[in-house]
Amino acid sequence: MLPKTELKFIKSLKDKKNRYAERLFVTEGKKLTGDLIAAGVLPNKLYVVRGLELENEFASLPIAIEEVSNSEMEQMSNLQSARDVLAVFPFLEEKPYQVPVSGLVLALDTIQDPGNFGTILRLADWYGVKAVVCSLETADLYNPKVIQATMGSLARVQVNYMDLELFFDENRLPVFGAVMEGVNPSGFKWNGSAILLIGNEGKGIRPTLDSKLTKRLSIPRFGYAESLNAAVATGIVLDNLLNP
Amino acid sequence: MLPKTELKFIKSLKDKKNRYAERLFVTEGKKLTGDLIAAGVLPNKLYVVRGLELENEFASLPIAIEEVSNSEMEQMSNLQSARDVLAVFPFLEEKPYQVPVSGLVLALDTIQDPGNFGTILRLADWYGVKAVVCSLETADLYNPKVIQATMGSLARVQVNYMDLELFFDENRLPVFGAVMEGVNPSGFKWNGSAILLIGNEGKGIRPTLDSKLTKRLSIPRFGYAESLNAAVATGIVLDNLLNP
């Protein structure tokens, strides 16, 4: 049986404060956990439901694997229905932001919904985006809901948090913004190096950053919805820019 | 004070069985509730947090408005943090599916995540999609998470549930499917009348429907993610078809 203190410790990682104190985060599910391991990230510890047959990718790892009961797994889980596998990983290595030689950088001005943020990271991975630069107010990368929504893309996308105003002051790339009034991204021509700025779900791009846009892009509307979901809008603009 | 039976009744509408027995659903938040009212749907009852100033759009409604305490609102709420307004609406009028004279119909083969389903309905509203046809296993339209994710588009999009195999047997429109191996939807030419079929989040399009596709569309990948979120993929394909 898992000691109560260990159960409590795993559960405590739901809180950002505890995650950052320990510099640990949790993944749930065989697929997601396996994807991170395949990307070269080694968990500190793996918990598996008793009786589960583990593929070699897990069994051959040089780490502690602990069998737990279904009830213990449920107690540790952040999901509505717990999975068979839960792992505790150390935070990823932080690489300093580097201006890419070419390609697209994604900048996020305060994406707050963890599901949206994770979905955007998955999108960035799909489209080969060079880096994702997030305002300091953006959701935490290690939030369990972000982790689950990235579907393993976490380890393959470079993410940096920084003061976006300072970032844009020092930046020399053109800055495209996804806004409500602008040119159609379909057919928009650019030279292959730029930053795409996506605003907050409710408030959009803050005025001090909006003023730094060199091009305003707007997905044309053919019906009546007032807006699009932030992750969906990001996907549509990325596709227009990178799959013209 | 709200009678306990009334509190309990509202809470009971979280369950699909109860929603369908009563043919009632719940919206939360001033904006979403106001959007539905603006679209011509009248709630049976409106609950507002005591002391909240109501805009005329609410105050002039010929319906019961009940002031409740913060704690009562929290007890009724399906959200992590309750809003100021909660309304109980009757189910929308069911219109039989009609083959549109032209334009795009969206077909969903078992979208199960309520957030994805709501986001897709919001997308359908944005792009002016004529109708959304859902397999019987698709998430329930009146699930609180679907309702919240539609952001008011609910009342403006025609949604029908049906056996998709029968639907496709009787259908004479071309059927495009969003799949993993197919042609790039960017630059794809079509004649303006078709059905776009989106598959389940994990399993994709079921084989018996896959065999009915007249064109396979696949969003090109430039990076490494294994797949895209279903709502994001729907948005990208819709944009390619409707905003070429």
Report on this structure:
- Two copies of one chain form a homodimer.
- With about 240 residues, chain A is α/β, with parallel strands linked by helices.
- Helix content of chain A is about 35%, strand content about 20%.
- Chain A folds into two domains: about 5-90, 2-Layer Sandwich (60s Ribosomal Protein L30, Chain: A); about 105-240, 3-Layer(aba) Sandwich (Alpha/beta knot), CATH 3.40.1280.10.
- The model of chain A has no long low-confidence stretch (mean pLDDT about 95).
- Chains A and B meet through helix 6 and helix 10 of A and helix 6 and helix 10 of B.
Topology:
Two copies of one chain form a homodimer.
Chain A (H helix, E strand, L loop, with lengths): L3 H9 L3 H7 L1 E5 L1 H9 L6 E5 L6 H4 L4 E5 L1 H7 L8 E6 L12 E6 L5 H13 L4 E4 L9 H7 L8 E3 L2 H7 L4 E9 L9 E6 L8 H4 L4 E3 L12 H13 L2
Supply the key terms.
Alpha/beta knot; 244 residues; six-stranded parallel beta sheet; 2 domains; 10 strands; alpha/beta; 60s Ribosomal Protein L30, Chain: A; homodimer
